[in-house]
Structure formats: structure tokens, C-alpha cells
Amino acid sequence: MGGSGFIGYHLAKKSIEKGWKVTSISTNKVKKLRHIKKVKYVHFDISKKKSLKKITSLNFNYVVNLGGYVNHKDITKTYNSHYIGCKNLVDFFLKKKLNAFVQMGSSVEYGKIKSPQVESLNSNPVSLKSTYGKAKLLSTNYLLQLYKTKNFPVTILRLYLAYGPKQDLNRLIPIVINSCIENKEFPCSDGKQTRDFVHVDDVVDAIFKTLRCKQARGKILNIGSGKPQKIKDIINKIKEISKSGIPLFGKIKLRKDEILNIYPNISLAKKTINWKPKISFNTGLKKTIKSYYDIKH
Is 0.85 topped by the overall pTM? Predict the structure, then answer.
């Protein structure tokens, strides 16, 4: 699910390289930039239960749910895609014999829980302000309940901020890279907040390790670098590598309820699936900037 998206593309690409059969399910058709020849592309909306009939005849060993509406300002579509869609998927696959179901969760599920955030500390959906956060946490709770009652083979990977080549221009790093490559002035906050970024290749590695690890079933695992960085430092680093771009710090005000420091403790992922990020931020950033530069030239 979400096979036409950023992480979905990288996961499908790696799966094909491993010789796996891959079916990508998404609401929208895949962009030319992310099209992979050997992948079977199926298009429908998972929030509409009857539409899952399209995959009744297909067999699956593993399911990775990366699906969800990207524009979180649309409350209805966000809730339906991230919660109702997940619930429909799970109800469908309960009747199948899966080896593993990986749900891509989000750090937003922790709400205002202080960093470094650990998996044992869970917030209440009612306390979360964003519809996206509520939908993700409701999905997590639903899935874990099914693990307890029906032994559904689920693992929730609670993702922090992924970045890398071929990401859409609606996230911080690609927005800044694009502005710097074009040597534009661009508004940003004062950049004092810290965030955790993890390269998409490391995310894909975590997914593969989770699929193969029976000890991961019924668990929430944080997936991030565990090394928070100031947003201002990241923007300046991109500017330095690109040798262009004019960030206008302080032009965008932080929300009153914005949490300044968000980053995970990743020790449980290290222990459970023997995973830790291999790509340093410097290396990953240089590769990512080069990939966007290559597209433009």
C-alpha cells in the first residue's frame, strides 16, 4: 500500500532487486519518475472496503502499509486513508495467511511525550491535536489488539523524518534543496527546533529486517537516527553543499503548540531486529542533493 509514494518506490525497487514479486497498491497512478518495470500496479482507494475485491485473486506473503493521504489539512481524507483504510486492509488480510504485516506509524503518535521518545510510553488518541496523529494511533491500537486476540503478525514501525532521492517537494529537505539549487530566497523559521532525519535506504532496511523477524510481531519499533539536529544547521548545510540559496530565517513563525525537540530512542529496534542506521546524515544529504541536481540537469 502506498507503492507509488516515496518510501514505497524505494521499497519496491529493492524488493525487485531481491527477486521478489511486487504488487503496488495506490489510489493514484505512479509518477513516471517512480515507475518500476517489473512491479504490478493496482489502483484503488483502500478506505472503500469493496474496492479490495480487486486483489482477491492475488497471493501475498508480506504486506507493508505505507498508504495514506498526504495533505493532512483535509481532515476527512486523512482520517479515512490512515485509519479506515488501514482497518479495511487488516480485516481483508485476517482471512489470509500472512507471514508479516508492517504498519508504517509516525512519531506524531507520541504527541507531547518528551524526547527521546520510547515505545513503552503511549499517548491517548483523544489528547492528540492532529487528525493524522489520531488516525495513526487508532490504527496502532487496533492492530496490537488483533495481535493479542487473533495473533495477527503485525509490527508497527514508528517512523521519524525520512529523506532521500525522489521525495516530493512537500517536505523540508526537498523544499530547501530545490530552493538552493535554483539559488532562490526562501522563508523559513528561526530553525531552533530539533528533528530526527533518517535516510530512506535505512528505512527500507528496517522494513526488510522486520518482515523476517518473528520476535518483532506485536511490537512498536522507533525508526530514526537517534541523533537530533537543529533545523537551522540542516538548512545551512544544504546551502553550503549546494553553494547557493538564500534562506530567510525567522520569516515563518513557529506554531504556539509546536514541540521544539522531537527524536527517538532506537534501542528497541537495535535489540529486536538488529537494525541501526548505516548512512550518515552528511553522506545521505550529499547523495540526495546530487539526485535532485541530476534531475534538473
Answer: yes
